[in-house]
Amino acid sequence: MHKIINFTFCHLFAVDFRISKWEFKTLFFFFIAWTVCVLADSGRIRQKRAWIIDSFSIEEEIPGPYPYPLGKIELDRSYLVKFQLHGQGVDEEPKKVLEIDNKGYVSVLKKLDYENSQGIKILKLKFEAINESNNAVDTRLGVEIKILDINDHAPKFQKSVYQVTVDESLDQGKDVLTVLASDEDDSSTNNGTFDFTIKSITPKTDNVEFYIQQQKDSGTVYFRGCLDYEKAQKYTILVEAKDKGEKIQLSSTSTLEINILDNNNNLPEFSGKTGPGKVKERETGVEVLRLQVTDKDIRGSKAWKAKYTIYGDKKEQFKIETDPVTNEGILTVVKQLDYEEQTYQNLSISVQNEIPYFSCKVKKQVKNALWELDKKPQNSGMSDANLYNTILVTIYVEDVNDPPVFIPPVKNVSVMENIAVGTSLTTFTVKDMDGSHINTFKFVKGEDIAGWITVDANTGQVSTNKILDRESPFVINNTYKATLYAVDDGFPPLTGTGTLFIHLNDENDNVPVLEVNTVNMCLDTEPTIASITAVDLDLPPYSSPFYYELLGNVKDKWRVDPVYGTTVSLVKEHSVYSGHHQFQIKISDQQGLYSIQNLSVTVCDCSIAPNCHVKMARKAQMGPVAALMVTLAVLFFIALCLMALLISCKAEKKMIEIDEGFGHLIKTNTENPGTDCL
């Protein structure tokens, strides 16, 4: 360029000067403008050459050999320069990957890994051209080298094995399981994108079809049709994730284990019955039948466990329970049955499971769409009564000996107390309830704690055995209770019970008496009073209130005020002296029946003692002289006893001859009493 510029300038000024001054100025300005344009254009060219160069790229994982040339950086210079590279791939991570020689050739020293380049996908470097004559930087360029990804990684599943458990009642079209996968290759290229595919399903059944739908890096497994535990308890699905690499396609697989949970899609069916099918009348808690059922659902599950219902048992005489081990229905009698009322009982028994029933059947398989199904979902609200299996059973009632029955079982009689012994009270009637057993029976007295009644063994007539007393402690609320038994001659003999309540009407057979017949009163100048009370075991009008009357010489000394009542006041006049007083009092009931009671009254000076009881107790205490006399008397009595004992011990002692023979007793012909003397 400098040569061109110099050449143009010299050529311009080499012309002759036969031109006008104005023409010269015009040519000069034209030259200047042309020169500026040329220089400006030259500057743009240098700028492009300085900063814009062809881009380089390195493919990862090239096997070598190393180093190998990547390319050349072109720079037009007339003087010697040396080249340098700085930045990523040279003296920055990843280091020692690139180098440049003095001719501008860039070489690759070792292989790169796109996935492990610390996130660096483009190496950014600085190129410098240095003038060797003065070591000044002549040119500085920016260089970018792109790392190219190759398909060296297969898609990888998050798990090698996925497991899930689903209920067989799950609706088709619902998601079963979602798998996740990733690819370390560049996701913006085909090397890093992949598709999911179901490669195999084990076992293959005609009731279900599995498929997978992809959402970027995840795939969700669905199914069409009906899951059925009885056809397959577990499905094993092999899913493949395969990338879209152009040169080579890589893939990996994951195993999906789908466990099917049994639900109630099979109804229990009756298969038989065992047991006597009969019960003796009046028996309860007796097992009469066992009903067997079969169920294809898993044993022990709620879908397998049977639940029974009884129909036709209006009196609720039966119950049915499920045997937890065998699943049998155990029919038991819980209330007594009477042969005379019914000889057999017809029952209807249905069976279902503990959880609701559902069903699912494939009507038509539709390609790439949900299938047409005939399905009854659980808890759909549809009536299941017509679905359940039902069995009819007949329970026969056996006749046994029934106990006699009192008619009525309880009798009440009302009589006056003190009626004559032998008076008939009532006659009990007993009925034999047996239809096939004809029995006779006899009456026996049961509870009769006072022994007041007798019963005729053949007729059941009850009579008095003693005088009936309403005031007896065995009578409660004017009523006496007795029981009777009727015993038949059956085998075994049975007994019926009847109860007799005897209600006793009161008579005036008791007189009023004083509740307390001793009274203490204080000596006073004014009249003093004390309360006296009478009682009568009879009821009104044969008892209180009473009439009181003092007998004897009591005028101006004692009086009763008032004379009529239950509790009255005994009034002592001021003329009565202290001491012990006794007199009689007549007490009459409302019917005039009376008794004469002795009343003892003690009058004392209450100023000396608080009351008469204390004073009398003090007077009764023994003085010291009296105590001494009693002690001497006791000692004298003991001395007399000792003397009598000594005198009796001085009786004459006789020798007893001893026979030398064989130890026979010697006859003494005496009958004297023995002695304690030795």
From TrEMBL:
Q: How does it sit in the membrane?
A: Single-pass type I membrane protein
Q: Does the keyword Cytoplasm apply?
A: yes
Recorded superkingdom: Eukaryota
Q: Do you know which PROSITE patterns this protein is assigned to?
A: CADHERIN_1 (PS00232), CADHERIN_2 (PS50268)
Localization, UniProt: Cell membrane; Cytoplasm
- Provide the Cadherin domain boundaries: 81-157, 158-270, 285-406, 407-514, 529-612
Q: Name one GO molecular function term.
A: beta-catenin binding
- A biological process from GO: adherens junction organization
Q: Name one GO cellular component term.
A: catenin complex
Its transmembrane ranges are: 625-647
What Gene3D superfamilies does the record point to? Cadherins
Q: Which Pfam families match?
A: Cadherin
PANTHER family in the cross-refs = CADHERIN 27-RELATED, CADHERIN-23
- According to UniProt, the name of this protein is Cadherin domain-containing protein
Please name the source species. Culter alburnus (Topmouth culter)
